[in-house]
Amino acid sequence: METLTYRGRAVTPRDLETIRQLLTTPGISRRALSWQLCEVWQWRQPNGRPGDVICRGLLLWLHRAGYIQLPPPQWTTHKAWRPRTSAPPVLIDTTPMTTSLRTLGPLVFHQVRRTPDEALVNSLLAQYHYLGYQQPVGEHLKYLVVAGDRPVACFAGGSAPGALGIRDRFIGWSAEARRRHLRLLAANTRFLILPWVQVPHLASHLLGRMAAQLSSDWEQVYNHPIVWLETFIDPARFRGTCYRAANWIVLGRTTGRGHRAPTKQSTRPLKDVLGYPLVPDFRTRLTED
What we know:
single chain; alpha+beta; Aminopeptidase; seven-stranded mixed sheet; two-stranded antiparallel ribbon; 10 helices; globular
């Protein structure tokens, strides 16, 4: 039998036999099978929760390849699947806020992932960010920044891309080290200062505050820290001045080929890539095998 590998995990004949044995359980559903398999394999995320989503992806992959026969899904829909890219609008005070950073008052960062305020952040991004809102996949956090009782900014951060040439060369890690330590990287996927907020130097100040807080919050939710941040900037729209002012490092520009592109032709807009180390020894921590 050929060696099977799914997302870096080898699937042995013994693994297949374990799955087939579980499938003999009368009335077992795909969800129940995934949870039982996670328990047998002790397959858990860094935060201790079962790796159910990845496990279900593995089971479906094996089913489609003909190695196992899954039970019929218990729920189906005729609607085409599409990611959640919008959120219901909200009404908030849009009175212009034109002041200085000194007189703005205390700024409070609220980590809103899995809180009632997460919907507010989703909606503000959908309404006012030029890229709109898209529900992240994988580990991610969201922030709402308020001054007094008024929102002034939003952040969203998620898992970093698996392979990014200019970043990988800058870090200097091997393919094995990248596989082991990629979870220690995060991407700043959204940064929004609400359009009625006009405060000089606010953006770079918020970037510094966010970088100082993110790792500890990530560890609290996902049981591991973050040692490196990165972001993508569309040079046709922005220069990334606030990131540069906050001491982010300009790494270079993407190739525009996207994820796992079948050719070497650019098919997407080129983006500037900027990075920000959260610890002085980030290379040591990311390159150890």
